[in-house]
Each structure stands twice: as structure tokens, then as C-alpha cells.
Amino acid sequence: MDVKDSNGNLLSEGDSVTLIKDLKVKGSSQTLKRGTVVKNIRLTGSAAEIEGRAGGSVMVLKTEFLKKA
Fold first, then answer.
1. Which of 15, 40, 56, 69 is the most exposed place for a label (fewest CB within 10 A)?
2. CA separation for the pair 53, 28 (Å, rounded)
3. How confident is the model at residue 43 (pLDDT cuts 50, 70, 90)?
């Protein structure tokens, strides 16, 4: 399974990615701002999602809103 960012670059465990769009966090009033760097990502079972620590908590992010840092 190949996990790719919004530009088509391959992502792997431990990579750093940057948000390309402001994202609202479900169940919270928090918003992750464009340009936020998420370090040391983990791959999930889905090719469209990664897991990483952003905004002080671990969350699942869709790869269509990320680019490799």
C-alpha cells in the first residue's frame, strides 16, 4: 500500500509533513493552521490517512491536506 501526499510524494513512517490548509478539529474548538508541521508520522491501515501529533494531541489526518516537509 502506497501512502502519498497531496503532491504525489510517497510518505513513510517517521516522515514530517506540513498542512496545506486550515483544518478544524472535530469535537473541539481548535483549528490547525496552514503551515503546521507534523513530525514523526505513523501510517494507518488506510492509504488516505496518517496518524501524527498536532496541536498537543495525537490525531488522524487525511493525506489530501498534507505535503511532505
1. 56
2. 15
3. very high
According to DSSP, the residues that pair with 51 across neighbouring strands are 42, 60
Q: Is the pLDDT of residue 1 over 90?
A: no
Give me the mean pLDDT over the 22-26 stretch: 93
Q: Per the structure block, which three cell numbers stand in for 35?
A: 503551515
CA gap 43, 66 in Å, rounded: 13
Cβ neighbours, 10 Å, residue 66: 27
Residue among 1, 4, 67, 2 nearest 36 (CA): 67
The CATH classification of domain 17-68, taken from the options 2.120.10.10, 3.30.379.10, 2.30.30.40, 3.40.50.980:
2.30.30.40
